[in-house]
Specification:
Blueprint lengths: L13 E6 L10 E6 L2 H11 L4 E5 L16 E12 L5 E16 L8 E5 L18 H14 L6 H6 L2 H11 L4 H9 L3 H17 L11
Helix pairs in contact: 2-6, 4-6, 5-6
């Protein structure tokens, strides 16, 4: 499904929030979700009957189910672009990333899910695809990525990776990177693709430094 261009005026001022630890949604990214909690089934039902907009945001702390932990201030707005229902009542959905947002204030909503007034003023560039830009060291990024894949025996279509647009490659890797929530948040809040790539390189270097080289024992 083609995603229309949406100006800032067309983006909703109030968003239903789907808090997920370790999960971020970046512009033009694709986020598949398996929805099963009743409050989020209700969220999806309401989104389907309106503009299909959902805000993905990380809680700042791990907390028991059904509690209301504090949320990070920056999240990702997604439009629901795929939907299926399973025999056991779960929803399998895909959100397509539109832009990041800033939580202005959380609302006292009557819905079982949380809602917030949001603003997009800091993220005007998110609605436009970003090129490599002069500050992105694509060669260094690909070298670090290849080292990580080799060290962790990750199968990949390297030819396709080398040809992929920088934004698509960096953002998709940021979304799936197996890092801590705070590091995910840093990737989400990076001002540009180049700065996000630099954070990924640093995280890759840290991961490589903390593990033994394949075939060798880590020194005591």
């Amino acid at each position: 499904m083609a995603e229309p261009n949406r100006s800032e005026q067309q983006l909703p001022d109030v968003l239903p929030l789907f808090p997920l630890s370790g999960v971020i949604l970046l512009p033009r990214g694709q986020l598949p979700l398996n929805v099963f909690e009743p409050r989020y089934l209700a969220l999806v039902d309401d989104a389907l009957s309106s503009e299909r907009m959902i805000g993905i945001v990380q809680p700042q702390t791990e907390s028991p189910q059904n509690s209301r932990p504090p949320l990070f201030n920056i999240g990702g707005l997604g439009r629901l672009t795929a939907f299926a229902e399973t025999d056991d009542g779960r929803y399998l959905i895909t959100l397509s990333g539109l832009t990041r947002f800033r939580i202005v204030r959380e609302l006292s909503a009557l819905t079982p899910y949380r809602q917030a007034q949001v603003a997009y003023d800091r993220f005007a560039d998110d609605r436009n695809s970003q090129s490599d830009g002069p500050n992105l060291d694509r060669a260094a990024f690909l070298r670090a990525l290849k080292r990580y894949f080799v060290a962790n025996r990750v199968d990949s279509d390297w030819e396709s990776i080398e040809k992929a647009p920088a934004e698509a490659l960096v953002n998709s890797l940021s979304m799936i990177a197996p890092v801590q929530p705070a590091e995910k948040q840093a990737l989400l809040e990076a001002p540009s693709v180049a700065e996000r790539a630099s954070i990924l390189i640093a995280l890759i270097e840290l991961a490589l430094a903390s593990q033994p080289v394949h075939g060798e024992s880590k020194p005591n």
